[in-house]
Amino acid sequence: MLRIIFPSAVLAILITLIIISLGYRYTARLFPLLVMSPVVALLVVQIFMEFRTKAKQEMVCKEDKPAGEVTLGKYLRSQAWVAALLLLIYLLGFVVGPSLFVLIYLRVHGMKWLTTMICAVTVIVIVYGAFGSLFEVYLYKGLLFSYMEG
Amino acid sequence: MLTDILNGFLSVFDPMIMAVMFGGVLVGLTLGILPGLSGITGLAILIPLVFGMEKTLAFALLLGMYSAGPVGGSLTAILLNVPGTGPNAATLLDGFPMTQQGHAGRALGISFTASALGGVFGGVVLALCIPILRPIVMAFGSPECLIIVLMGIAYIGVLASGSPIKGLISGGLGLAISFIGYQQVSGLMRFTFGSVYLFDGVRLVPMTLGLFGIPPAIDLIITGAAIAKVTAKATASDLIEGCKDIFRHWRLFLRSSGIGTLIGIIPGVGGDVAIWVAYGSAKQTSKHPEKFGTGCVEGVLAPESSNNAKEGGSMVPTLAFGIPGSAGMAVLLGGFLVVGLTPGPLLLRDHLDFVFSLVGILIVSSVIASAILFLASAQLARIVSVRGDIIGPMILILVAIGAYARAANLLDVSSAFIIGVLGYTMRRLGYSCPALFLGYILGEMGETYFYLSLEAYGWLFLIRPMVLLLILIGIFGLSYKWIGALFSRVKRTS
Question: Which one of A69, A87, A109 terminates a domain?
Answer without folding.
Answer: A69
